[in-house]
Structure formats: C-alpha cells, structure tokens
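[Automated response] Your request has been received and processed.

Submitted sequence:
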Amino acid sequence: MSSLPPRAGRRCHTPLNSLHATVYFSPDYAEELAGLGVENPRAAYFAGRAAAMGAVGPGAVAASFYNFRHGLIAEHLPAVWRTASPEAVLAARLRSVDTTLRRLLGEETLASDEMAEAARLALRATEGCTRHARPLYAAHADLPVPEEPHLAYWHAATLLREHRGDGHLAVLLDLALDPLEALVSHTATGKGMAPGWVLTTRGWEQSDWDAAAGRLRERGLLGADGELTEAGAALRTELEDRTDRLDLAPYELLGERDVARLTELAKGFVVTAALAGGFPADLVGKG
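Generated structure:
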C-alpha cells in the first residue's frame, strides 16, 4: 500500500508533463529544427521526440507513441534522419527548450532558488524510475543531465513524463483500447485533446474517428450523444488508477512532503508559462 495520498503522483505528474510539452508548441523549436533542414512540423515532432532512440523507423515510433497513424509517421521517418542526425536533433531540441523557457518563465525564475529546488526534487524522483518495458523513458534516461537548473528540470520532467506514458500504454493494451479509441474516450472526458487537434496532428481522418466512436458505442462505453457512459467513465478511471500504480515508484521515493513541494513548484511554473502563451487556446476540449 502506498504511503502517499491518493493520486498524489498524478497531481505532480500533470504540471511536470505540461511544462515538458511547451517545447513542442514553441516557435523556437520549429525554428531550431528548420535550421537543420527539417521544416515540416510533423517531421520535426517525430524527430525531436524519437531522437533519443536513435535513427528509428516508423514502426518503432508507432509502437512507442501509440496514437499516431503509422502511415503519417512513415511519410517522415526514416527519411528525416537523412536531413538531420538524432544527435543534431537532440542538441537543437535542448537549445529550443532553453529559449522557450527563458521566454515563457523569464530570467528571474530560471535563476531562482525555486527552479534549482524543483530540478533537485524532480531529478531525485527519476531515481525511482525503471527501464524495463519502458522504451521512451529508457532512451531518454541514457541522455546526459544538463547542468543548468531549468534544463535539468525539463530533462527530469521529460523522464517522468515518458515513464508514466510507457506504463499508460501497457494499461491501454490490457483494457483493449486501440490508439484512436484511447483518444476518442479521452476527449469524451473533457480533459483530452480536442478532435480538431487529433485529426490535424495524429494523421487520422474523420471517418477513422467516427469508426472508433462506433466501436466504443458497441462496447457500451460511449453514448449516442458522444458522452461517456457510466461504464466508459469507469473504464477511464480504471485506466488512470492502474497507470498511477505503475508510476508510483518515483513519487514513493520522493516522499509525501517533497512530492507536495514539487507539485507546488511545478504548478507555479506551468501557470506562468500558460499566461505567457505557452499552450494553444483550443488544445483541450470536446468540440
């Protein structure tokens, strides 16, 4: 039994993950990748997030990213590696993280004791992560920890994000939610990506979305109105609770007091980033 309050790890993960994600919405990231010759935004995303695994092809990325259409990935990988090596992409990504966080959080925050404390706590939590059956986490865990506190904090947030994400995919498989069913059901909670963003970024068509919704209705998980049924809501709750259990170790290692402190610090950084325009306004929602 966990010594932490219920969902304490998830509450900490959420703002950590959100700050991790800012780089992929950042014009600084697009500019850095374009400087390497990678101008297509989908190619840039796949390259940046997959580069820690090396010059992988579409199969490895489809498996580890889960909810992107394989055909979309194959349009860009492995071709992108002929334009920019994984090492060059990782360096460009870290430069864009630096520029993005300086713009969103400000120099004073980056140089603050609070940022140094957050980096220390987040890195300590990563010591509880495990590599087995977690390919994206394991690949990123082999990267060096940046020296500057804000970059070290982003690195740690990335490790914790991918560690939880890898476990989440295992639970999705066990609950028999395929990539698009996972997205449709998440959107139906009101906390997932808006359908327009899914179709634009994940490579699916409206007909794919409608078919996935149909499969969920056949299982009694989604109503005719597009809302989750009682069974659907229960399944999503089970999904997150089981993901919590698979992701418990980093936060157990940190302990209740430090988890609460890291959550407080992480929330403050994310609120500042959001107020500075770090996230698209229409990213989340059912419509």
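Summary generated for your ticket: The radius of gyration is 19 Å. The mean pLDDT is 96.
If you did not submit this request, please reply to this message.
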